[in-house]
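#onboarding

Welcome to the new folks! Below is a worked example of what a typical request in this channel looks like: someone posts a single protein sequence, and someone else replies with the predicted structure as tokens. Don't worry about understanding the tokens yet, we'll cover that in week two.

Example request:
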Amino acid sequence: MPFGLTNAPATFQAKMNHILRPLLDECVVVYLDDILIYSRDMQQHIQHLRRIFDILRRERFYVKLSKSEFALEKPGFHTGLPTTASGHDAIVVVINKFSKMGQFIPTHTTARTEETSQLVVHYIIPQHGIPTTLISNQDPKFTSKFWKELMSLLGTKLAMSSAYHPQTDGQTERLNQIVEQLLRAVCKDEISKWDLYLPILEFAYNNATHATTEQTPFFLCYRCHPLKPQKPTASATVQAAHDFITTMHQLWDRTHKGLLDIQQQQKRQADRHCTNHTITVGDQVLLDTRNLDISHLPSKIRPRFCGPFLVEAQA
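Example response:
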């Protein structure tokens, strides 16, 4: 990777998806800067390794052995998450572009396209109906013929983000970071049970005020606010029920605090890059071209700013 390249993991994934395309969904999955090779048995695994290593060698990519693991029965942290008792080791993050409502769906990294399509049927359609447009990354699951044909039959338009224009799917990328931070804050003592905490995390996120809309996703979707978990009363007679509600309330408090911490961190980061400039007579400034009529220039080479111009008077 060239020095100073931004968005390097996504660029690497785009390159790997290109050169390994013949083997995608057959024996290999690419996720950011990880390559997962899966096989039925050891003999087939060796054959798959040989084919993939030949491709990497031909493209002048080399494996760093100190960061690689071979012949594992099950990947442990392919997406940075441990495998839970239910077999989950990844999360599908879905966000509604208008309301910002998020859904956190547990899954596994080796799920095939057909399995992923079932998540749409089970989780998205019952709550929101058929989506008119679906924006996703360039994962092989979302570029396969099956997925494209399925979305076409549903009447859903597919839009793909790319390594060179990741802002297309920027909302999801930001939500991915929030989910990761919440899991780290809430599940740090029981990280192997992270999938059990997802519903509470999703509820808390959707009931928190979004900085852009200044409303909660719940309110924008349903025009009302849901009831929050209440502290258990001292008169509870069934201890198991009392303990369950206590645990849920503690999770809610930890998640809510985690969201507040994330919002404060984002504000500090934004304030650090926000400076007030006082423009005086004699200064030289650049002029934003968004409000100028320069439609005669092709959009690909249209400048964002023009100038510099000398400030002659101050209004």
